[in-house]
Amino acid sequence: MCEHSQAQGSECENCGKKLQQAPQAAAVAVATLPELEQTQHTGGRAAVPSELLPELDFTRQKAGPDLPAQVLPEMETTRAAPVAPVNIEVVQDLDTGRAASDGVRTAAPTGAVVCRYCRNVQAEGLVCERCGMRLPRARVAPGAEARKGGSEEELAWKPCQKCRTPTRPGKLCSVCGTRVVADS
Predict the structure, then answer these.
(1) Rounded CA gap, 143 and 111, in Å?
(2) Strand ranges (DSSP E) for the chain?
């Protein structure tokens, strides 16, 4: 009735209606016809000895040492024509070395991270608390505070403790199934 398909059972898993059972086929006796030839040997196929026909032997392909080696000079791949010397010119202004180190290294970014999708600023975490997208990697500066913005509805979402997916407190995370604890 509800058009739910299921592999087995006598009742529908969806609506509980009894399913129609396919009628079982009745066994029918089949009589053999006397005019048909029965198999003469048991076990199926039997080996039948046969002779090779000498007039068909010329179609057999020869292989290996039967064939003479043929040399094709235009197809010779192991030899190449001699190469004339090529003049090599040096490029005068090409620098092939590295610059001398001045000892100053570019510092990794620290502090609050800005989400490139929703522009939410947060102090820590790998996933944005607002939109759930992955944040760029950065070191967290000690004592960095993130500025939180948005409506009360946006602030009601909390990141899952296990996978950092935004979820409402007290509900199960849609990704990992962990119950998200509300802040006390």
Answers:
(1) 9
(2) 113-114, 121-122, 158-159, 166-167
**pLDDT by residue (tens digit) across 139-178?**
544 544 444 444 555 557 888 888 888 888 888 888 888 8
CB-based contact 175:160 (threshold 8 Å): yes
Collapsing DSSP states into helix, strand and coil, what is residue 132? coil
Residue 126 token pair: 């790998």
pLDDT tens-place string over residues 92-134: 888 878 888 888 887 776 778 888 888 888 888 888 898 988 8
Residues across the chain: 184
Kindly tell me the sign of the dihedral angle through the C-alpha atoms of 172, 174, 178, 180: negative
64: its two tokens: 């290996």
* Backbone angles phi and psi of 139, in degrees to 5: -75, 145
Q: How far is CA 48 from the centre of its chain?
A: 52
Q: Are 166 and 129 in contact (CB under 8 A)?
A: yes
Three-state SS at 159: strand
Q: Are strands 158-159 and 166-167 parallel, antiparallel or unpaired?
A: antiparallel
pLDDT recorded at residue 38: 66
Residue 170 in contact with residue 182, Cβ under 8 Å?
yes
